[in-house]
Write a structure and sequence with these properties.
The chain is mainly alpha-helical and 432 residues long. It has 18 helices and no strands. The chain has helices at residues 14-46, 49-76, 79-103, 108-136, 142-170, 173-188, 212-225, 227-248, 250-257, 262-286, 292-310, 318-346, 352-363, 367-381, 385-401, 405-408, 410-422, 426-431. α1 (14-46) runs antiparallel to α4 (108-136), α2 runs antiparallel to α14 (367-381) and α11 packs antiparallel against α12 (318-346). The longest helix is centred in the first third of the chain and has 33 residues, at 14-46. The protein is globular.
């Protein structure tokens, strides 16, 4: 069983990790193309905010409903096999959807069902990959890898959105889906030979092996003891209540409010991508404040201001919205990258599957309600409504965080969480 290691241990890690990382990057590009094409297809075919909100909702349900179970299984099962099965499942259901499009019998519920299964496979694969990083990469390099991952997401947004718009205008959807299946092979094939380290398992207590339920409870206890993180996640759920619907309604903002088309939507996605790239580069060079919570909270405030501006610009202000989108995306690595670095460097490797999925579940808890409300309300009151509401909520949460001691002491609070799980005094853990 593997443990975290230091760069001074001189363990070879770059070739296996970046081979895996590169294959996943190519696969993600194919998935982004499919995601763009399907969302724009629903936009053109229905013009309904409720339909787009529903598409976002079904992609969230697997991790929202099964996240804690998925995380526990990731910590129990062989992570390489989980990644392999997850990637293969996504490819197979994508083939099925391509056949439906080719036969001309596809319906909205078909798309919803395939999106949900793809999200289920992605939840297993993505969380297993994230949990494995701390065992494949030296602890000193985890922050840089987080910056690299943030930059990758930005690059994918820059490339995938305009390319997706171009492919949508020139190719049938079944061909775009076939591209995604082909790109998935770049993620699947390396997993046939790359060794994915396994974390140490919890030792049996009084001769009794741990069960799925007991390990799930351990994960809940850990997150519950991580008070600062738990408060941030509650704040995040309130932010996601408004910002997730706003993001899912972006195609209608471009088409309905600004009167633009698929190409302009591609520009908007690319603007987000450039912002994430810039933010990732800045974080890679600067690294954020020494106290990562300052970077997180200031990033939240900046993100909220940008979304609020997107909610008030007039129909003639498309180019101003592009600038706001760049600034919003610039803030994302500050928030997500810093929080991920805190968790990867402080949470025990054998707990990371459970903790990461619990974090995802809690932070998304309010999103389905927001999506259920946002679609009909935006159809009635205007598509910009959720942008300025979401922006104000995000700014408020960022300001509130400065007034909460447990949030301001986030890094120190992580030590207390581990101590609480192991039954040790928190003060002793902090002294160690």
């Amino acid at each position: 069983m593997a443990t975290q290691f230091s760069i001074t241990d001189n363990r070879p890690w770059k070739r296996p990790y970046f081979t895996l990382w590169g294959g996943q990057a190519i696969s993600q590009l194919g998935s982004r193309l499919v995601g763009f094409a399907l969302i724009w297809y629903l936009t053109v075919q229905t013009g309904s905010a409720s339909v787009l909100a529903g598409a976002t909702l079904v992609t969230m349900l697997p991790e929202l409903l099964l996240g804690p179970v998925i995380g526990t299984l990731i910590d129990r099962w062989n992570r390489r096999r989980i990644m392999l099965i997850g990637d293969t499942l996504v490819a197979l259901v994508t083939v099925l959807l391509a056949v439906l499009f080719a036969l001309g019998v596809v319906e909205i519920w078909h798309i919803y069902a395939i999106l949900m299964v793809r999200a289920l496979g992605g939840a297993f694969q993505g969380n297993a990959t994230a949990a494995s990083a701390s065992l494949m990469v030296p602890r000193e390099e985890l922050g840089r890898i987080q910056g690299l991952n943030q930059m990758l997401q930005g690059i994918l947004s820059v490339v995938a959105a305009p390319l997706g718009a171009l492919l949508y205008e020139t190719l049938p959807l079944q061909t775009i889906l076939a591209i995604d299946v082909f790109s998935a092979l770049f993620a699947i094939v390396p997993l046939l030979w790359i060794v994915i380290p396994q974390p140490e398992r919890k030792a049996a207590v009084n001769g009794q092996k741990s069960t799925l339920w007991s390990e799930l409870v351990d994960g809940v206890r850990y997150v519950r003891g991580f008070t600062g993180l738990l408060i941030i996640l509650v704040m995040a759920s309130l932010i996601n209540f408004t910002l997730n619907p706003a993001s899912s309604l972006l195609p209608l903002l471009i088409q309905g409010h600004f009167g633009k088309g698929a190409l302009e939507l591609g520009y908007m996605e690319a603007a987000f991508g450039f912002g994430i790239i810039a933010g990732g580069l800045l974080m890679s060079v600067w690294g954020g404040f020494k106290r990562k919570i300052l970077t997180i909270l200031l990033g939240l405030i900046g993100l909220g201001v940008a979304f609020a501006l997107m909610g008030v610009f007039p129909a003639s202000g498309y180019w101003m919205v592009l600038v706001a989108a760049v600034f919003a995306a610039l803030m994302l690595p500050f928030v997500n990258g810093s929080l991920s670095a805190v968790m990867q460097s402080t949470v025990a490797p054998e707990m990371q599957g459970r903790v990461f999925t619990l974090v995802g579940t809690i932070s998304m808890a309010m999103s389905p309600l927001g999506l259920a409300i946002a679609g009909p309300l935006s159809d009635a009151l205007g598509i910009q409504t959720w942008y300025w509401i979401g922006g104000l909520v995000c700014v408020s949460m960022g300001v509130l965080g400065f007034a909460i001691p447990a949030v301001m002491n986030l890094e120190e609070d992580s030590a207390r969480a581990g101590a609480a799980l192991n039954g040790a005094p928190a003060e002793a853990a902090l002294q160690d």
